[in-house]
Structure formats: C-alpha cells, structure tokens
Specification:
This protein has 237 residues and is mainly α. The protein contains 14 helices and no strands. It has a domain at 1-123. Helix 10 runs antiparallel to helix 11 (174-187). Mean pLDDT is 85; it is low at 231-237. Residues 1-202 form the Integrator complex subunit 5 C-terminal domain. InterPro entries: INTS5, INTS5_C.
Length: 237
C-alpha cells in the first residue's frame, strides 16, 4: 500500500487485482502479520488513513473496493468471501468507512478530481442505482448509514438530480420516503436549487419509465407536497 500511495499509476493499475485477492482468510492473515509487528492504536490510525487516501485516489475497481469495505464491516455480511472475518478486522473497517465518506465529501466540494479522468466518483456514478437500491432495501441500518454518506459525496460531486430521482422512482414505502427526505435535507443547504433539478429530471424520465415505476414516481412527487417541498420548487421551476 505504501508503494501504491507514491504512484497513482501503480494504484490504478493494481486496484482490480488487489480486490480480487481479498477475502476473509487473506485479511485475517494480514491482520495477524500486522499485529506481530507490535502495531498499536497509532499504527492502526495510520493504516486507516492510508486506506482512505488510496481509495480516494483510485479509479477502476474503486467501487468494488468500497463494497468490500462495507461488506466486511457489516455485522450482517452477505458476501460469502467475508465469512469468518476476524472481529478486530471488522472494527478497523468500521473506523475506515466514516473517514472515507468524510474525505470523499471534502474531495467533492473542493472539486479535487478532474471529470475527464477515471476516478472514484466515476465508479460511484456507474453504480449509483445499486447504491440507491441498497439504501432503500438493505436490512442493515449501519450499511444504510454508510451508503447514505457515499451518496451524499456523489451528489455533492455531480448528478444529484439523477440520484434523487432514482430514489423517488424506487420508493414504495414511507421508510423509503424518509430516506429520500433525510438525503435531501443534508444536500439542500449546499445545493439550494436541488428540488427544482429533481423535478426537471423526474419529468424528463417519466415518459421513459414502465407504467408501474411511472405511477410510483408521480405518487411520490405528490407525496412530497405533504412536506411543503413542492410549492417552493414549482416557484423556481
């Protein structure tokens, strides 16, 4: 990892290969080796910071790496490759994820990545529908929290209207709408024109949707009026 941190070229060339090699057995072995060096809290903090830095700088394969971190940290892990993961390794991953989300949000706000090059945000964009689906349907609250923070970072980077429209289109329960409102409330102070953008995106995609999803979207748009959101948005539409 130290070598990768010194060269983005090496990092981006090896990320996919690295993820393929990671499973519970490998991670447990690496952790045992790490402990044998007498590593304490300070070394663990340094390791976590290094992992966060590498993910933020990576390109192709970064989404799979983030999913690996989420699955490994989750107490209800569904990835067969992560079965038997040492609880101490889980704790390290649980320390990494909040820092990763925070750094990604800062990176998005600072416009610190070029839209023309392969980067972690492009990977998130390519998989935003899967993230939205997990936000709405995951049975793990901790996983929902981590995915929520990732979606905040992606929305701050760009395509917030597409992400929010996707959530509205797939929301079929009150808890789904609550997830939409929670995400909207976090983004609105930074993206004040967001609701108008969501409406534009919704009415652009509406004719292209299957009838069931179109009905769901229209129902949810009307439901938003109960939160007092629509009048201000329509005024600026």
């Amino acid at each position: 990892m130290q070598i990768c941190s010194m060269s983005n070229l090496i990092l981006r060339a090896t990320t996919v290969m690295f993820v393929k090699q990671m499973d519970a057995c490998t991670l447990n072995t690496l952790h045992q080796q790490f402990q044998s060096l007498g590593s304490g809290d300070a070394e663990i903090e340094t390791l976590c910071s290094l992992v966060v830095h590498l993910v933020c700088q990576s390109g192709e394969g970064s989404y799979k790496l983030i999913r690996l971190l989420i699955d490994a940290a989750s107490t209800t892990c569904t990835d067969p490759g992560m079965k038997g993961l040492d609880s101490k390794v889980k704790l390290i991953f649980m320390k990494i994820l909040p820092s990763l989300s925070c750094d990604l949000q800062h990176l998005a706000l600072s416009k610190g990545v070029s839209p023309l090059e392969d980067n972690v945000f492009k990977e998130l964009e390519l998989n935003y529908k899967e993230l939205c689906d997990d936000l709405l349907n995951s049975e793990s609250n901790e996983k929902k929290t981590w995915i929520h923070t990732l979606l905040v970072a992606l929305c701050l980077h760009q395509h917030a209207d597409c992400v929010m429209n996707q959530i509205l289109t797939q929301s079929t329960t009150s808890s789904h709408i609550d997830s939409f409102i929670k995400l909207y409330n976090e983004l609105f102070p930074i993206l004040p024109g967001l609701l108008g953008d969501i409406l534009k995106q919704s009415f652009t995609t509406l004719p292209l949707l299957p009838s069931k999803e179109a009905t769901t979207l229209l129902t949810n748009l009307l439901h938003m009026s109960s939160y007092g959101l629509l009048p201000s948005a329509v005024y600026n539409f």
